[in-house]
Automatic annotation (TrEMBL):
Transmembrane segments: none annotated. PROSITE patterns: VOC (PS51819). This is Hydroxylase. InterPro entries: Anthracycline_SecMetBiosynth (IPR052164), Glyas_Bleomycin-R_OHBP_Dase (IPR029068), Glyas_Fos-R_dOase_dom (IPR004360), VOC_core (IPR037523). Residues 10-124, 138-250 form the VOC domain. CDD domains: SgaA_N_like.
């Protein structure tokens, strides 16, 4: 079972903060077939929503704060952003921004888990989040990379009530029987300066073709297309501005 729409506690949205919004639009529009529309209101700060057909699937934004890294960020749906932010703090995390209202569309906060991975909380009002999940060109999986996996399990199960499906090689997060993400332990292969982080994966029709297209468009392949035993085919890519993301095709999609 996979998520095809936002549910409480699950990933509902992903945003790219980038140093070159126009270039990022061109890259992802070419890679995924997105149509990006920038909110014309000055107070929106250049916030751009990418669509597939009529469905909103992701956002691309300028960097809003000094020192903000070029990176993809993942948002999780909550019924009450203020209560969720308080729970983050009680569980040992930190709230960096908010909670605050975003026009009439929702209320959000930016938080960091005890190991340093940043994520966002989204309380929907008129905007529930992605109109499409787990379809080609849309968000379909989120992965936590951390150096403190046991602490992460304690933190996220407390804050969001996730189920944990752990095997020898990989831990998966789930809600009501639907696994939506996983966790990788960062070992010595990861440079020390790379912090814990959440990595979004976008579904694609063909992982190998997408990786080749990303390279041709100025991106970089960080992990070559690989078939996970009894699992999906995946690759990890970096866009021309430096943001890292994954792509996948599920094993059962022939």
């Amino acid at each position: 079972m996979k998520l095809d729409k936002p549910v409480t506690g699950g990933p509902c949205w992903t945003e790219l903060g980038t140093s070159d919004l126009a270039a990022a639009k061109r890259f992802y529009e070419g890679l995924f077939g997105w149509r990006a529309e920038t909110d014309p209101r000055g107070e929106a700060g250049g916030y751009s929503i990418a669509h597939l057909g009529d469905a909103a699937v992701a956002a691309l934004t300028p960097l809003y704060q000094e020192g903000q890294p070029v990176a993809w960020n993942v948002s999780f749906a909550v019924p009450d952003a203020d209560a969720a932010a308080a729970q983050v703090t009680e569980a040992g995390g930190t709230v960096l921004v908010g909670p605050m209202d975003v026009f009439d569309v929702g209320r959000f906060a930016v938080a960091v888990d005890p190991a340093g991975a940043v994520f966002q909380l989204w309380q929907a009002r008129s905007f529930p989040g992605a109109g499409l999940l787990s379809a080609p060109g849309a968000l379909g999986w989120v992965e936590l990379l951390t150096r403190a996996p046991e602490r992460a399990v304690e933190f996220y199960t407390t804050v969001f009530g996730w189920s944990v499906n752990a095997s020898e090689h990989y831990t998966q997060w789930g809600l009501d029987g639907a696994d939506f993400g996983g966790m990788v332990t960062m070992d010595d292969k990861f440079p020390h300066e790379v912090p814990a982080h959440w990595l979004p994966y976008f579904a694609v029709e063909d992982v190998d073709t997408t990786a080749a297209d990303a390279t041709e468009a100025g991106g970089t392949v960080l992990m070559e297309p690989t078939s996970v035993p009894d699992g999906p085919r995946i690759a990890v890519l970096r866009d021309p501005q430096g943001a890292v993301f994954g792509v996948y095709r599920a094993a059962d999609e022939k």
